[in-house]
């Protein structure tokens, strides 16, 4: 029995670690490429979860909600990049922290105004709500396995994107010499918006996935944000492999 | 006329760096920009590429004003910059350096590898493992891969061993022969002047002389270039 418990805990740990990875990957992507400390990353996580919960309630489909959560967070990310973040690249980190902290407050209060302070509940879709028997564990929730797989898929996709595609090359080139890549004719502003939206989408995805396990509420992003910061500091700031 | 710079002035913060630079490059021509260190050659280049925003004057390239244009748009009109200090992307491989910003045109990977066979041998190596000369070849090739109408070379042979310098000069001569327009800054007049069609001398941020390089007298070289 002991072994089963340990195995189950390992899986739980893996699932938790991978959701943290999703958060940390977005954060470190933005930090590594643009040198920006984005405290509002937790808010994007929350926005993803709220978009998903709301769409799921309206349409009854978790899958639509999941897509909506990711797209909603990406759109919110692109919007704040263009309106706020773009002005912060040349400032020092303290200004960035201040401005993105303000974004947290704005998003938290904004969400409270729209959805109220009662947590929303997100039901796990039927197809994933059962349990499976794994060696040693009689019943392990399918949904947690789904989170593990989804996070691994994102990790692989992200790795492919950064290391194999032209967009990834440009992102890495921008990381080392932003002025030079612009002088070669690459629109670095648009590139940054894309990177930021990508980071936001990943945050939204993890918010959505976790939202179904726990409740969706205002301020859900901040505890995760702090843990994610711990991850990227230990893993090496700006390194996706580290995360 | 391919590039026409008139009355260009530029500042770094409060300090004025350019006080009126005039310069023209015609189609297919190679123009040498001369002057001692700190006279504004690199600033002029940065201003043309819109990496420094000029405070006064006009820059016209292929009939379009570059004033207030962002640097990637200016580059897309056909400016190919080989910057001072090479500035290859160290965290990218040679191949990635070449393809990251490439634009379609007659310059392809094969042609670049033809020009510098050594890059082909090292295509999967990370750019920071290259020697200085190879990095210079990479920087030139990277600019060529964007298929520029005007290649801008800033100190392309500085700090290189004589043999490698020879290779780079050979490549530059070949590019010129193929009809590529080139704006070049270099300190080695012995190789530069026979190749160039026109020369411009900058002193204290101002263009003080322009003409054919063979009309440049020893006295002027001494006065403006400290040779």
UniProtKB/TrEMBL annotation, chain B:
Transmembrane segments: none annotated. Keywords: Amino-acid transport, ATP-binding, Nucleotide-binding, Transport. GO terms for biological process: L-amino acid transport. Residues 3-227 form the ABC transporter domain. InterPro entries: AAA+_ATPase (IPR003593), ABC_transporter-like_ATP-bd (IPR003439), ABC_transporter-like_CS (IPR017871), BCAA_Transport_ATP-bd_LivF (IPR052156), P-loop_NTPase (IPR027417). One of its GO terms (molecular function) is ATP hydrolysis activity. It holds the Pfam family ABC_tran. CDD domains: ABC_TM1139_LivF_branched. Belongs to the ABC transporter superfamily. This is Amino acid/amide ABC transporter ATP-binding protein 2, HAAT family. It comes from Pseudovibrio denitrificans.
């Amino acid at each position: 029995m002991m072994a089963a418990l340990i195995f189950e805990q390992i899986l739980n740990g893996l699932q938790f670690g991978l959701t943290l990875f999703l958060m940390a990957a977005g954060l470190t992507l933005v930090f590594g490429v643009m040198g920006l400390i984005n405290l509002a990353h937790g808010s994007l996580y929350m926005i993803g979860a709220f978009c998903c919960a709301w769409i799921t309630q309206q349409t009854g489909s978790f899958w639509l909600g999941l897509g909506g959560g990711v797209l909603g967070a990406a759109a919110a990310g692109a919007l704040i990049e263009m309106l706020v973040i773009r002005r912060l690249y040349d400032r020092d980190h303290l200004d960035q922290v201040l401005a993105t902290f303000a974004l947290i407050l704005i998003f938290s209060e904004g969400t409270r105004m729209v959805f109220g302070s009662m947590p929303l509940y997100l039901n796990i879709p039927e197809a994933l709500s059962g349990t499976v028997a794994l060696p040693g564990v009689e019943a392990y929730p399918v949904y947690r396995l789904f989170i593990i797989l989804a996070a691994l898929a994102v990790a692989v996709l992200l790795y492919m994107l950064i290391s194999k595609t032209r967009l990834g090359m440009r992102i890495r080139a921008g990381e080392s010499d932003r002025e030079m890549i612009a002088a070669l004719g690459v629109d670095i502003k648009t590139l940054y918006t894309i990177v930021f939206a990508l980071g936001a989408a990943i945050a939204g995805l993890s918010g959505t996935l976790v939202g179904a396990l726990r409740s969706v509420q205002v301020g859900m992003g901040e505890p995760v944000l702090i843990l994610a910061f711990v991850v990227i500091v230990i893993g090496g700031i700006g390194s996706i492999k580290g995360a | 006329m391919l590039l026409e710079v008139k009355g260009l002035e530029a500042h770094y913060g409060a300090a004025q760096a350019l006080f009126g630079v005039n310069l023209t490059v015609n189609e297919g021509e190679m123009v040498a920009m001369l002057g001692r260190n700190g006279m504004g050659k690199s600033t002029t280049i940065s201003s043309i590429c819109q990496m420094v925003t000029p405070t006064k004057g006009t820059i016209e390239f292929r009939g379009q004003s570059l004033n207030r244009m962002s640097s990637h748009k200016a580059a897309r009109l056909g400016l190919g910059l080989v910057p001072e200090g090479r500035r290859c992307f160290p965290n990218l491989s040679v191949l990635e350096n070449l393809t990251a910003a490439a634009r379609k045109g007659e310059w392809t990977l094969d042609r670049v590898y033809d020009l510098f066979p050594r890059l082909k041998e090292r295509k999967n190596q990370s750019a920071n493992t290259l020697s200085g000369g190879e990095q210079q070849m990479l920087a030139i090739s990277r600019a060529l891969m964007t298929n520029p109408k005007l290649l801008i070379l800033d100190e392309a042979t500085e700090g290189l061993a004589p043999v490698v310098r020879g290779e780079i000069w050979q490549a530059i001569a070949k590019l010129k022969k193929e009809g590529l327009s080139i704006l070049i800054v270099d300190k080695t007049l012995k190789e530069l002047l026979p190749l160039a069609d026109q020369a411009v001398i900058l002193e204290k941020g101002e263009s003080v002389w322009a003409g054919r390089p063979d009309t440049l007298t020893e006295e002027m070289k001494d006065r403006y270039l400290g040779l």
